[in-house]
Give the backbone structure.
Amino acid sequence: MFQFSELKLPVVQAPMAGGPNTPALASAVSNSGGVGSFGFAYSTPKKIKADLTATRALTSGPINANFFVFKREILPGNGIQSAALEALRNLPIEGEYTLTIPSEPFFPDVEIQLEPIWEFPPDILTFHFGIPAETIIKRAQSLGISVGVTATDPKEALAIEESGANFIVAQGIEAGGHRGTFNPEEEDDDLYLDDLIKKLVKLTHLPIVAAGAIMDGGDIARVLKLGATAAQMGTAFLCCDETVISEAHREFLINGHDRKTSFTKAFSGRRARGINNEFVRRMQWQTILPFPLQNSLTGPIRQLALKNNDGEYQSLWAGSGYHKIQAMPAGQLMAQLAKELRCSKL
């Protein structure tokens, strides 16, 4: 079974759902001594199989497959549906789009999604938004797959340890993309990464993978010193040559440093950190559907914005440290991180 001690560089390229991860990116990271990942939140079994087999053909290094643990949702009443539709229809985006209230099933069946995992086992299987069924954890481990789950606070970390998972991904409030809280209706402690690591190392014996605004070797050294076993980095890889994001997203990441990041539920129905834009501003006080219904509802707007190369209406996910991002091949970035980490230890 995979052990983090096997890594030449204690870096996990974060699983980013929605398309940024590619076989070229994951394999470049794995070939450079880290862990390459895929965010398979909405992927079909066919796509999952294709990505895993394509990546395995490019690397013998560790691969991580990540899935969302969706919670059952009920479609809100007609009043909320109408208000959510009206908020989106009033956006001053150029072009035509059709909005449709989603119907069940609202999200993919993870049991079906996992079928290619059992056939083509990755080294690591991770979960976001909660703990999967015990049968899933045990089946993965029986195949030699190491299982990790995201925690945003000590209570979630203890539940992960009790589940029998192999490690914890500690997500600080600085992290880009979706907040991994188990219950989005409960108050979030909004713990900064360093504070979260300090709490978890006193609480659990499980390895801790630190996530949240880790952008360079100095950041990696810092979280390792605090007790983390490895660092998970997502935003840092977004402008790598092998990553697939829109040109507008790339432009904001590289040249939009006058803008801060913030959390919004407006794109998907769940808190997610990204670069502030017009959509985030205009939707701040509007009615939205619960996750992932809102994600389906806003799909046509995001697709139109992508077609128009309009970053003001795309989900520009990024961590709070995105201003330190660099555009280069993933292998080159990994070599730079390794050098920076060595220098930080001197």
Q: What stands out?
A: The mean pLDDT is 97.
